[in-house]
Amino acid sequence: MAKTEQATDQAQNTIVVPTSIPMVTLLGSGDELIRVVERSFDDVDIHVRGNQITMTGAPDDIAEAEQVLDEMVAVLRTGQGLSPEAVERTVAMLRARTEERPAEVLTANILSNRGRTIRPKTLNQKQYVDAIDQHTVVFSIGPAGTGKTYLAVAKAVRALQDKQISRILLTRPAIEAGERLGYLPGTLSEKIDPYLRPLYDALHDMMDPASIPRLMTEGTIEVAPLAYMRGRTLNDAFVILDEAQNTSGEQMKMFLTRLGFGSKMVVTGDVTQIDLPSGTASGLRVVENILDGIDDVAFCRLSSQDVVRHRLVSEIVDAYSRYDAEQQESGHGSGRPRVPGRRP
Question: How far apart are CA 307 and CA 311, in angstroms?
């Protein structure tokens, strides 16, 4: 319920928050949530008294701020809490005029485990998990920290729990990230495990860690390097290829043609972080042109706006993107930094 008073080019709107919503959950600890709204609308004065929030400013700005508060209340009605980051993403989605309500995006549950629920945190992430539901083969391309692999593993675990598939296969190419580690001691498994560790970490976040060794022994869950996929047909499985930017064109073809009946594939990668030998084209770079127009194949793009790690990660991604663009424009796009005073 709201009352509006018009005065010249200023308006005043009073919102009455339902008594079923504790004000502390809407305002946040130390008023941190309402301060995010205030920072997002510099020209709107916000005052809180009891369960009433009064806003003064330009009518359009007030209307947008009120939408943000409505979405926050809608999230809280579901019993889910809010964070400053969630409020910032709500503002961003509303300003982008997205078709889906921010509250629908932020409350879409994928998987719950040990009191923790995994959900998409941005519109692009929500569209990504929806694409996994709607397509057999999905490619997710975007920078580090956008949840490409994490969300795919969550969907795989959920599909296993719901008995939609009978096994999960997680794979990635065993290529050093810009380093040459040389000879590694130990058994073959011990040599390979460091490359697959991020996949194990995601599994441990989503399942009872004690059950994982048993499921792996039974073959219900398999974590293996990409080379182990050759010659296999993967039926009734959820298969994830991680770090796909480090596959060659031949490896990408090999992987995609492992698809069997009743299976689903998700391919994730970041085309700005390719560790292949010089002169080797990334299979992830060319696959969209090859598969363009094929039904039941989806390509999802994530950006720095979808980064869900520390705030600086998004800014770092943007900074590197600007640097790469400048290098391309100046004709130094080989990936080697230009040394001042040296001829190209």
Answer: 8
- For the stretch 254-300, pLDDT in tens is 999 999 999 999 999 999 888 888 888 999 999 999 998 899 999 99
Q: How far is CA 240 from the centre of its chain?
A: 15
Q: Which helix (H) or strand (E) holds 170?
A: strand 167-172
Residue 344 CA to residue 338 CA, distance in Å, equals 7
Average pLDDT along the chain? 86
Neighbours of 10 (CB within 10 A): 14
Question: What whole-number distance in Å separates Cα of residue 212 and Cα of residue 164?
Answer: 19
Strand order in the sheet with 10-16: 2-7, 10-16, 52-57, 45-49
pLDDT tens string 212-260 = 999 999 999 998 889 889 999 999 999 999 999 999 999 999 999 999 9
132's tokens:
């996994």
The backbone region for 261, taken as left when phi is positive above 0, alpha when psi lies in -120 to 50, beta otherwise, is beta
Task: Compute φ and ψ for 237, nearest 5 degrees.
Answer: -135, 155
Whether the CB-CB separation of 28 and 77 falls below 8 Å is answered with: no
Pairing of strands 167-172, 297-301: unpaired
Asked whether 235 and 261 are in contact (CB, 8 A), the reply is: yes
Q: Which residue has the tokens 């806003």?
A: 55
Q: Is 45 exposed, middle or buried (0-12, 13-18, 19+ CB in 10 A)?
A: middle
pLDDT band at 337 (very low <50, low <70, confident <90, very high): very low
Nearest to 40 by CA among 62, 19, 24: 62
Q: 81 phi and psi, to 5 degrees? A: -85, 175
Question: What are the structure tokens assigned to 237, written together?
Answer: 């499985």
- Distance (Å, rounded) from C-alpha 140 to C-alpha 216? 26
